[in-house]
From TrEMBL:
Pfam families: Transglut_core
Protein name: Transglutaminase-like domain-containing protein
Organism: Streptomyces lincolnensis
Domain Transglutaminase-like: residue ranges: 94-150
Amino acid sequence: MDDYLKQTPYSDPGDLDHGDLGPGGLPRDPGELARVVRDLIIHRGEGQLFGYTIPEQRLHEDAESRYVREILRILRERGDGPLTRRRAPEERFVGTCRDFSLLHCSLLRATGTPARPRCGFAGYFEKGFHGDHWVTEYRLPDGSWRLADAQTHHEYDLPFDPMDVPRDQFLVAGDAWRMCRAEGADPDSFGLGGSDRLKGLWFVRGNVVRDLAALNGVELLPWDGWGPEFLGRAPLTDADLAAADAVAAARGEDDWRRLYRDPRLTVPARLTSYTPYLGDREVTLAEG
């Protein structure tokens, strides 16, 4: 479990100096760190909640910043002061749920709490639909793990504490896959909310692969892939199905490490980022 206390090339914040931390430093409480994250990032689909029109260039470019160091660089350019200072909307990084999760994990790791991003599906944004989403999973002092949604705030009016998300409300991708493959769930009830095209078993499989990668320290962007099947442009093969079945059946870190050595599931050094605004582009990942 100490592996999840170590920063990855994606979560590493670099050298946090006095200007970043402020006189009191960062809080250690996971809930307080989630508040810090919410005060630094604005979801690119939520400008209207803050009465703010997000500049188009930021919609296009910010969320392509896959490393926490890059997120912090952008934040420093947009406003002075420590990370604990609440930023005005125009000073914030414009990101996605993955960025909330990754930065939350970065700060948790930096303050001594093992944490890992989890990719899957939330059932609390749209009734009857499981929306593509990322949350944080962090370790409690007793060794158990808890799900936390650092993105959500009072506007969501959730029926649960976002720092203790029930596991039937957020399904890690392997659980969603098992529901579709073995329990009769409709694959078309899983995908990107508001899209008629980005849903189905191929979408669930993509999140299965991304979640396994995150569990092995490779915290991808939500639209990263390395083959046409990642966008439903090619049918899933029997081998694809079998590999995802194996991930869904995994029950711990030894299984996750073993499965990640499977070439069908290992993230290559060079992949395709199927960016929503900028189009498909080839990306070489940082070495870890």
